[in-house]
Specification:
Number of strands: 29
Number of helices: 17
Strand content: 15-25%
CATH architecture of one domain: Alpha-Beta Complex
Bound molecules: guanosine-5'-triphosphate, sulfopyruvate, manganese (II) ion
Helix content: 25-40%
CATH class of one domain: Alpha Beta
Distance between the termini: 71 Å
CATH topology of one domain: Phosphoenolpyruvate Carboxykinase, domain 3
Largest sheet: 9 strands, mixed
Structural class: alpha/beta
């Protein structure tokens, strides 16, 4: 491949046929002053070399080769275990373009601040250039980027999570454009840490963290924050959604996209195993994606979706043979585990794995003592190729994407919100998404279990003002559009005893079946001001037993409670001022009036 040189010692030496890329690498090298530059080709040999090097220096610990072939444990810095929302910035020239939903800094100030940290930060390290493609390499919906990092752990993860290496570089050279992501782990000092986005410049700069969404820049930084900005300009949607295919006994498949906030059940729903009766009848679930969805209208007016990712960066705790057998099967080999515990014979272990084994060492590398800390960090993760998932859909590689029949919003709501309801039309559906609330989880630093508004599960990920984002969503409702129906679910409603009232996991298919029947016009519903709810008898509940309390609250709605909720929603929307689309405010007002009447 032309003049591309590997492991060269002279920063800035020509590595691509694209001048813009070479120039940028040279500029970054001049600033960060690495000892060497390596252009990643994504090959097995390259990966083996990097892994061996990380094993030698302790970055990766080899797990039990017999039970978990080609699998490794990484222990991150204990102060670097989750996304850091307070240090994540959207740097638009105008503050209002970032909106009240983002932390903001003026671009010039932001560049100066973070470039000072990058100055000389790669001395003694290797600078890796990672060309990657988000989405199938031959899809018109895909977009490319290049991440520069000094972390071999990031390289190994990006290789699983994206289409990384030579084919991506070829596409970048053909297209001539790419998202620039500059990352350094720096000193891993929380006081010297920033995750900055410059949407107008298609640029990301991340310093001081090696963890997940802070460091694997193709994921949340590119595929959501930067992509949401591009999607708005180009007429598509970049969303924090899983995509799954539901195949009925007649062999027809409906694709559903669902937005739940971090650690609220996307991976689990995407890999769902049907309950026994459904399995016997011939129902199947196909996993297209578990975290991010890019959608755009096709020639027939329907929305077509791709999963821009190639792997899963999934929450480990709670993953068991019972809760998510597809995930467990996926991570039997060729997996990187981050911050889980290990057994005495070096098998990965986490709370809720339920495999009869006991942890010996916790995620900090200390002897396990449940009175000190859990064995696995609550936000511990596995990184694995989507191709290892038994339910991975062949359609996930289709360059045209899959047609979406239903969009689902949902959060963790211990009270008020019923199991499922349907929006009456697109505008109402956008309001349902905009009004989403959820209790916070360990996926980000900060308090856990606090209710907050998380519109469309995009609070931490929308790269621009939410008011403009809702207007963009509304703009899809135009003549000729055949838009999906919109639903809201809540798998996390709790009873008076504090326990979940709905069995969840595989049994969530009972709810999906009702949605599909609604899409096909074959199921009943009860109309209420908040939307259309199934009556208890409208869902197939054979094989599960629900208490009287569960039947009442999962399928009912509390008018007084919802009235207060809608007052809160009104206040929330008003916080965006004049920019908030009038039709959305009208819709909120219309429903509030009905609830009050
Ligand atoms: P991110 O990767 O952070 O975006 O998370 P996610 O939305 O993919 O969440 P995931 O599927 O990993 O689930 C997070 C937690 O929710 C796990 O502990 C699951 O066991 C739990 N969970 C998932 N689905 C259900 C469900 O239907 N009911 C209940 N009660 N818990 C669930
Ligand atoms: C999330 O927090 O929503 C994740 C994990 O999917 S991270 O990649 O860290 O964003
Ligand atoms: Mn996520």
């Amino acid at each position: 491949m032309n003049a591309r040189t590997k492991d060269m010692n002279i920063p800035g030496t020509d590595g691509s046929t694209l001048a813009a890329l070479n120039d940028w690498v040279a500029e970054v090298a001049a600033l960060t002053r690495p000892d060497a530059i390596h252009w990643c080709d994504g090959s097995d040999a390259e990966n083996a070399k990097l892994v061996a090097q990380m094993e030698a220096d302790g970055t990766l610990i080899r797990l039990n080769e017999e039970t978990h072939p080609q699998s490794w444990l990484h222990r991150s810095d204990p102060q670097d275990v989750a996304r850091v929302e307070h240090l994540t910035l959207v740097c638009t020239p105008e503050r209002d373009d970032a909106g009240p939903n983002n932390h903001w800094m003026a671009p010039e100030e932001a560049h100066a601040k973070i470039d000072a940290l990058f100055d000389g930060c790669m001395q003694g390290r290797t600078l890796y250039v990672i060309p990657y493609c988000m989405g199938p390499i031959d899809s018109p919906l895909s977009r490319c980027g290049v991440e520069i990092t000094d972390s071999p752990y990031v390289v190994a993860n990006m290789r699983i999570m994206t289409r990384m290496g030579a084919p991506a570089l070829k596409r970048i050279e053909r297209e001539g454009t790419f998202v620039k992501g500059l990352h350094s782990t720096g000193e891993l000092d929380p006081d010297r840490r920033w995750i900055m986005h410059f949407p107008e410049e298609l640029t990301i700069k991340s310093y001081g963290s090696g963890y997940g969404g802070n460091a694997l820049l193709g994921k949340k930084c590119h595929a959501l924050r930067i992509a949401s900005h591009q999607a708005r300009q180009e007429g598509w949607l970049a969303e924090h959604m899983l995509i799954l295919g539901v195949e009925n006994p007649q062999g027809e498949t409906h694709y559903i996209a669902a937005a739940f906030p971090s650690a609220c059940g996307k991976t689990n729903l995407a890999m769902l195993i049907p309950p026994e009766g459904y399995r016997e009848a011939g129902w199947k679930i196909w996993t297209v994606g578990d975290d991010i969805c890019w959608m755009r209208p096709g020639a027939d007016g329907r929305l077509y979706a791709i999963n821009p990712e190639a792997g899963f960066f999934g929450v480990a705790p709670g993953t068991s043979k019972k809760s998510n057998p597809n995930a467990l099967a996926s991570i039997q080999s060729h997996t990187i585990f981050t911050n889980v515990g290990v057994t005495a014979d070096n098998q990965p272990w986490w709370e809720g794995i339920d495999n009869g084994l006991q942890p010996a060492t916790d995620w900090r590398g200390e002897p396990y003592d449940p009175s000190v800390r859990p064995a696995a960090h609550p936000n511990s993760r596995f990184t694995v190729s989507a191709k290892r998932c038994p339910s991975y859909s062949p359609m996930a590689e289709d360059p045209q994407g899959v047609p979406i029949s239903a969009i689902v919003f949902g959060g963790r709501r211990a009270s008020l919100v019923p199991l499922v309801f349907e929006a009456r039309n697109w505008i109402h559906g956008v309001l349902v998404g905009a009004a989403m609330g959820s209790e916070t989880t360990a996926a980000a630093t900060g308090a856990v279990g606090v209710m907050r508004r998380d519109p469309m599960a995009m609070k931490p990920f929308c790269g621009y003002n939410f008011a403009d984002y809702f207007a963009h969503w509304l703009s899809f409702d135009k003549p000729g559009a055949k838009l999906p129906k919109i639903f809201h679910v809540n798998w996390f409603r709790k009873g008076a005893d504090g326990k979940f009232l709905w069995p969840g996991f595989g049994d969530n298919l009972r709810v999906l079946e009702w949605m599909i029947k609604r899409v096909e016009g074959r199921a009943d519903a009860v109309q209420t001001p908040i939307g259309a709810l199934p009556a208890v008898g409208d869902l197939d509940l054979e094989g599960i037993s629900l208490t009287g309390e569960a039947r009442e609250v999962l399928f009912g709605y509390d008018r007084e409670g919802w009235r207060a909720e809608f007052e809160g929603i009104g206040e929330y929307l008003a916080g965006y001022g004049e920019r908030m689309p009038e039709s959305l405010r009208n819709e909120q007002h219309r429903i509030l009036t009905q609830l009050a009447g």
